[in-house]
Every structure is written in structure tokens, then in C-alpha cells.
């Protein structure tokens, strides 16, 4: 296996990780920022006020995107296994 093939495998893996984790991280970021703005405006500084809604929204979005995420992971794994003979030798 050449160095270019290893780099390509790592790039594909990184792209898959970003594709799968990106929506959950983005939703968590947006909800966290909105809660922070509300806390600043109302002068309420309770750590659970930002943690609980963020966790709930990320969980709900994760549940909503489960089928899409599984399809992406299956496609990536199928592609990786189909190229296994090329990398093994």
C-alpha cells in the first residue's frame, strides 16, 4: 500500500466523521448560543439551563437523523470492504 493510498483512506475517514458528526455538533452549537443569549439577557447563570436543552435537542436530532447516518456508515463500510483486496496486497 502506497503512501498516497493511506492518505486517501485517512481523508475518506475524516470526511465520513465530519459528515456524520457535523449536524449534531452544529445543532448543539446553535442551541448553546441561543441559551447563552437568554442567560445573559435574563441574568440567570445556571449551568443546567444550558446543558439540559442542548442535550435534549441533540438527542432529538440524532434520533431524527438515525436512518440517514446509518445509510452513510453502511455506504462507507461497503466502499471500504470492496477495496479491501486492493489494500491487503
What does this structure look like?
The protein has helices at residues 3-42, 47-64, 66-82, 84-88. The protein has 89 residues and is mainly α. Helix 1 (3-42) crosses helix 2. It is elongated and about 65 Å long. The N and C termini lie close together (7 Å).
Would you spell out the secondary-structure blueprint of this structure?
Blueprint: H1 3-42, H2 47-64, H3 66-82, H4 84-88
Helix pairs in contact: 1-2
Q: Summary?
A:
With 89 residues, this protein is mainly alpha-helical. 90% of the residues lie in helices and 0% in strands.
Descriptive keywords:
mainly alpha; 89 residues; 4 helices
Number of helices: 4
Structural class: mainly alpha
SSE succession = HHHH
Query: Quick one: overall form?
Result: elongated
- Per DSSP, what share of the residues sits in E-state strands of 2 or more residues? under 5%
Fraction of residues in helix: over 70%
- Biggest sheet character: none
Radius of gyration from the alpha-carbon trace, in angstroms: 19 Å
Report low-confidence residues grouped into runs of 5 or more. Answer: none
Alpha-carbon distance between the two ends = 7 Å
> On the 0-100 scale, what is the average pLDDT?
91
User: How many strands?
Assistant: 0
Amino acid at each position: 500500500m502506497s503512501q498516497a493510498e493511506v492518505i486517501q483512506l485517512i481523508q475518506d475517514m475524516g470526511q465520513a466523521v465530519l459528515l456524520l458528526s457535523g449536524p449534531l455538533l452544529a445543532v448543539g452549537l446553535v442551541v448553546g448560543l441561543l441559551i447563552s443569549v437568554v442567560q445573559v439577557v435574563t441574568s440567570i447563570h445556571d449551568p443546567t439551563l444550558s446543558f439540559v436543552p442542548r442535550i435534549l435537542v441533540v438527542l432529538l436530532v440524532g434520533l431524527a437523523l438515525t436512518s440517514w447516518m446509518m445509510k452513510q456508515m453502511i455506504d462507507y463500510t461497503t466502499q471500504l470492504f470492496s477495496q479491501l483486496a486492493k489494500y491487503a496486497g
